User: What shape does this take?
Amino acid sequence: GAVVSQHPSWVICKSGTSVKIECRSLDFQATTMFWYRQFPKQSLMLMATSNEGSKATYEQGVEKDKFLINHASLTLSTLTVTSAHPEDSSFYICSATESRGSYNSPLHFGNGTRLTVT
Amino acid sequence: GENVEQHPSTLSVQEGDSAVIKCTYSDSASNYFPWYKQELGKRPQLIIDIRSNVGEKKDQRIAVTLNKTAKHFSLHITETQPEDSAVYFCAAQSGGGADGLTFGKGTHLIIQP
Assistant: This one.
């Protein structure tokens, strides 16, 4: 089955530093990748949609200058949390799809990254 | 944009009984409805999905029904087992996969032994 690898699985950083999270599709080409954030005991909230070779589309309320997304290839997307603050502490999960036109393909999720900002 | 409502937020059933989780969506253009199971600290796992051209789908103890007219869909788990305990999320998607999923708020399913 389709595998999405996300790295790191957890990270602790100091306030004001930046953290990069990688999301790789291992055995398929991910036309589109999505980044979600999940606070404890809450649902997954879509942050942005990342299309290979173009700028990411951010959901309302998500700061694009704070959450930098790069989708340089069909198998890799990165999320960089810049100048992290304690309120950015959360579980970040990427997902990828081998979307084919008008046919919805299942999303495959990475294992998530637990970010703790001290 | 799409809005997905999910009920109940917590569901406790006796082992062996059935569990039903219901979701409604707002965007009539949504055409794909997956259900995910998430255990604590782990990624969501797709357990079943249904597309808008189908009214019902079944996979062993799990079934999903979709009513496009009423814009609601439900997850049915029969003969529940302890390992079914988890948080379940419904979701809706449109745009042929180009749009991200909109998730419901989740249902914490507890299977009582």
